[in-house]
Amino acid sequence: MSVHSLPAAANAPDDAPGRHDFPALTAALAGLRRGFAADPAPGAARRREHLAALADALGRHGDALAEAIDRDFGGRPARETELLELFPSLEGIAYARRHLAAWMRPRRRRVGMWFWPARAQVRHQPLGVVGVMVPWNYPLFLAVGPLAAALAAGNRVLIKCSEHTPAFAARFAELIAATFAPDHVRVVREGEGDDPLAFAQAFARLPFDHLLFTGSTAVGRRVMAAAAANLTPVTLELGGKSPVLIAPGADLALAAARIVFAKLANAGQSCVAPDYVLLPRGQEAAFIAHARAAAQRLYGDASSPDYAAIALDAHRRRLHGWAEAAEAAGAARHPLLPEAPAADGRLAPAILTGVPDEAALMREEIFGPYLPLVPYERHEDALAYINRRDRPLALYLFDPDPLRVRATLDATASGGVGVNDCLLHVGVHDLPFGGVGPSGMGRYHGPEGFAAFSQVRAVLRQGRWSSASLLHPPFGAAGGAWRDRLQRLILRLMLGRPPRP
Question: What are the catalytic residues?
Answer without folding.
Answer: 237, 271
